[in-house]
Design goal:
The chain is an alpha+beta fold and 167 residues long. Helices cover 41% and strands 28% of the residues. It is built from five helices and five strands; from the N terminus they run αβββαββααα. A hairpin with a 2-residue loop joins strand 1 and strand 2. The longest helix has 38 residues.
């Protein structure tokens, strides 16, 4: 068995796994906070602020404090905000691909509230895009029309009708 498994390799592998697990254990709250802020901002196109995220490992509980999501159409207002959220997860079900939330508590949930300072907006609104398109080419008063199904099929080289005729 010694020729198939080297103890130095096994110890090195276990050390890397232990280091990775320790990193996740220590920095889980910061990683979750960063991913909520960056992912939410990318998805919504407006600033997402989270004061703190923390993880309790037994039982697995995620606590989010003071989340504010900027409304992209009105940056001086929040789309949604809450003071505290506590989420208890069933980790064993999560490991087999099912997300089961045993308990979810939200406190201070509010919609369309005034922000202390306007949030950043990363995406242009539809009205801004339309006004920019109109200002770029003021002579384009052409109506847009979609081609018909027959026109599209006439341009394509389809194999199925040829095979049907051959059959």
């Amino acid at each position: 068995m010694k020729k198939y498994l080297r103890w130095q390799g096994a110890v090195g592998f276990l050390a890397v796994i232990a280091l990775f697990a320790a990193f996740i254990y220590v920095f889980a709250g910061s990683l979750i906070k960063l991913s909520i802020e960056k992912g939410g901002s990318w998805y919504l196109g407006a600033e997402v602020n989270l004061a703190q995220a923390s993880v309790d490992w037994s039982p697995v509980t995620l606590t989010l404090n003071k989340l504010e999501v900027t409304d992209a159409n009105e940056p001086e207002f929040n789309l949604v905000e809450f003071n505290n959220a506590e989420i208890k997860l069933d980790v064993w079900q999560y490991l087999i691909g099912k997300t089961i939330i045993n308990n979810l508590e939200l406190t201070g949930l509010a919609f369309h509230t005034k922000r202390s300072s306007p949030g950043k907006v990363y995406l242009e609104s539809e009205a801004d895009k339309l006004s920019e398109e109109d200002s770029e080419d003021p002579t384009s008063d052409k109506e847009l029309s979609l081609p018909s199904v027959e026109d599209i099929l006439a341009k394509e080289e389809l194999i199925t009708p040829e095979k049907a005729k051959a059959l």
